[in-house]
């Protein structure tokens, strides 16, 4: 059983975000996950297939249970995915960009 994105690829990105870039949250945005997927595609044929299928997402519909970050919503637009979301923020901050 081979994961699509190896934990050994995700963990250094999380470490970089928190320890060196000052982020408080180690969760990866969708663009960061796609970069990790493309790195794994070099050695994992299933990840390579997934990368090649990204164009197939154009015109698809998706739904999120929370309002997405600007980075994530922009990525879905670039992929051509029509996304809807619930009127609920991911975090309970008083200020949202």
Would you give an account of this structure?
- This protein has 97 residues and is mainly α.
- It has 2 domains: 1-52, no CATH class; 58-97, no CATH class.
- Helix content is 44%, strand content 8%.
- The chain has 4 helices and 2 strands; from the N terminus they run H-H-H-E-H-E.
- The chain has helices at 7-20, 30-40, 45-52, 70-79, and strands spanning 61-64, 82-85.
- Strands 1-2 form a two-stranded parallel ribbon.
- The longest helix has 14 residues, at 7-20.
- The model has no long low-confidence stretch (mean pLDDT 92).
Q: Keywords, please?
A:
8% strand; 97 residues; mainly alpha; 2 domains; flat; two-stranded parallel ribbon
Topology (elements, then pairings):
Elements: H1 7-20, H2 30-40, H3 45-52, E1 61-64, H4 70-79, E2 82-85
Parallel strand pairs: 1-2
Helix pairs in contact: 2-3
